[in-house]
Amino acid sequence: MTSMPNGTVLCEVENDIATITLNRPESLNSMTKELMADISSAVSMAQDNARVLVLTGAGRGFCSGADLSGVEQPAEGAQLGAEAGLSVATGMDDFFHPAVLALKQARIPTIARINGVAAGGGLGLSLTCDISIAARSAFFVATFGPRLGIVPDMGTTWSLPQRVGRARALGITMLGDRFTADEAADWGLIWKAVDDDQLDAEVDRTANILVRTSAEAMTRIRDAVETSGERSFAAQLDVERDHQKVLIPKNMAEGAAAFLQKREPHFG
Fold first, then answer.
1. In the chain, how many H helices and how many E strands?
2. How far apart (Å, rounded) are the C-alpha atoms in residues 119 and 232?
3. Alpha-carbon distance 133 to 233, whole Å?
4. N or C: which end of the chain has fewer CB within 10 A?
5. In the predicted model, is pLDDT for residue 76 greater than 70?
6. Contact criterion met (CB below 8 Å) for 25 and 8
7. pLDDT tens, residue by residue, 160-176
8. Is the pLDDT of residue 202 over 90?
9. Which residues pair with 147 in a beta bridge?
10. CA angle in degrees (0–180, nearest 5) for 25-28-32
11. How far is CA 46 from its chain centroid?
12. What are phi and psi of 9, to 5 degrees?
């Protein structure tokens, strides 16, 4: 187990699976600049040393969103000055956005192991992973709009409509209702909800499937699916063709041989 430079994130690599653990359990793994910098470092380590990345939280929560303890409190009836907005924007550009982009663009497939609350920015963070698996006791809530008076961030306004459609994305973000892991699975927000005592087994099963795959094929699948809305059907056929031109020389012979020999393929 390796602690990242700021001590807020742990990374462990075993059997080609990297587990990145947000390690601020006393605050349900709330996000700080230090934690986001550590996520970026951990993703770099993971993709250099593993074939699959699992993101999870220590203790009872996955991630409760931004740490609000340091927010300046103005005099009663006053508002924060414009410099507060500029400061937050700079922090987003320098720490938060690089971390979510590192996860979103990782060179290996990614799994969110959602072991507890995913709130606010923690919801957005969970949605950066390719496959999300949640314990049944976990829950989700978008606190941005109704409780904080801000726009959802961490890519939430992109990820939510992609996964659940416009109506549910607006309901989730504008109303701020808490919803369960089972509801998240029913809506297509996550891949699966499982009993709490089955979470580790299901994450391990999923990770071990991905370990045996071609990481490049998985990340190309991610790209093809997530950008498909930008193109016509005919244009998407061209995208699929272009991916196959690269992957078939690398993987097809081994895949076909494994199929004929009734064994698992072993991709490089």
1. 11, 11
2. 35
3. 30
4. C
5. no
6. no
7. 999 999 999 999 999 99
8. yes
9. none
10. 90
11. 14
12. -140, 140
DSSP 87-153: HHHHHIIIIIHHHHHHHHT-SS-EEEEE-SEEETHHHHHHTTSSEEEEETT-EEE--IIIIISS---
**Statement: residue 40 has pLDDT above 80:** yes
Which residue type does 186 have?
Answer: D
Query: What is the rounded distance in angstroms from the CA atom of residue 59 to the CA atom of residue 28?
Result: 7
For residue 244, give the 3-state DSSP assignment.
Answer: helix
Q: What is the mean pLDDT of residues 186-207?
A: 98
Q: Which residue type, as a one-letter code, is found at position 87?
A: S
Residue 84 pLDDT class (50, 70, 90 cuts): confident
pTM above 0.90, yes or no: yes
What is the rounded CA–CA span in Å between residue 19 and residue 43?
Answer: 10
Residue 212 and residue 201 in contact, taking contact as beta carbons nearer than 8 Å: no
Identify residue 53 by its one-letter amino acid code.
L
Query: Taking Cα atoms as reference points, which of 145, 183, 150 lies closest to residue 164?
Result: 183
- Indicate left, alpha or beta for 266 from its phi (over 0: left) and psi (-120 to 50: alpha): beta
pLDDT at 259 over 60: yes
- Sheet with 179-180: list strands edge to edge: 61-63, 117-119, 139-141, 179-180
Query: What structural domains and CATH numbers belong to the chain?
Result: 2-211 (3.90.226.10), 215-260 (no CATH)
Per-residue pLDDT, averaged over 214-226, amounts to 96
How confident is the model at residue 42, as a pLDDT? Answer: 98
Torsion sign (Cα): 83, 86, 88, 91: negative
Which class for 261: exposed (0-12), middle (13-18), buried (19 or more C-beta within 10 A)?
Answer: exposed
Residue 133 · residue 194 · CB < 8 Å? yes
